[in-house]
Amino acid sequence: MPHNCCVKYCKNNTQKGYRLFRIPSSAERHQTWLQLLNQPQLHKEARICECHFSEDQFESKRLDGKKLLKPFAIPDLLSSIDVENTRKSVENDVPMSSTYSEITEMQTAQSTERSENDMSLESTQETSNSSINNSIEKDALGNESNEDELNDQLETLLENSEDVLNSLKQTIKSLSRKCRRYEKKLQHRENTILESIFNEDQLQFLETDKRKGTKWSDDTITKGLKLYLACGTEGYTELLRQKLPYPSIRTLQHRIRNLKFIPDGTSVRE
Q: Which residue in 16, 34, 164, 255 has a CA-CA distance of 20 to 30 Å to 180?
């Protein structure tokens, strides 16, 4: 489900690719953001998109390249938006001959419908940043809302950590899939090489490593006999000691009962 920006007239949401940030939970910063938003209250899940923050409100030079807010960041691009919307509304509703006090009263009446802000919008635009910076400095020095500010910092760090964690999880999944593909390729290549050298019964022996009870094929018996004649008893015995998949000497003799081997020669006789 996409999250939408809570700023009036803003249509940005996460589905469009915008990054959204939660309203702070600390009382003082929460009220500051509400003041900038010109809203009396907001849902606890309300969020503001990245377009309402200037570049100096974001952390810079992050190794992961993510765009994350600083712990004490504020949406400092809201005041100018509210002033412009209010000016347009006043120009449409108030005659040119109206006095400044009448315009101010109408601005206050319109603003009261949307928030409890009793200051003029132009004054808010000029003084909000300095007053907010002063309150942040007081919090950093350890005023009564310091605990709430720390909670806000922890929430921000937690969100950032969750983003990093999700990114790492995706990386792990991608690497795991690659590893499985490589393992399959290696296994296939290994099987292809082994199949070009050994018969099926020899491959089964390699899997079980149990010579006793193995049913050797005629082709494997023939290969074993050739090695026996070429290597002699000691040489063939060493091959078996190295776990190569060939029948034992007794098995070879059993399969050719009527033949007598001459280990050091090149022929057999009855």
A: 164
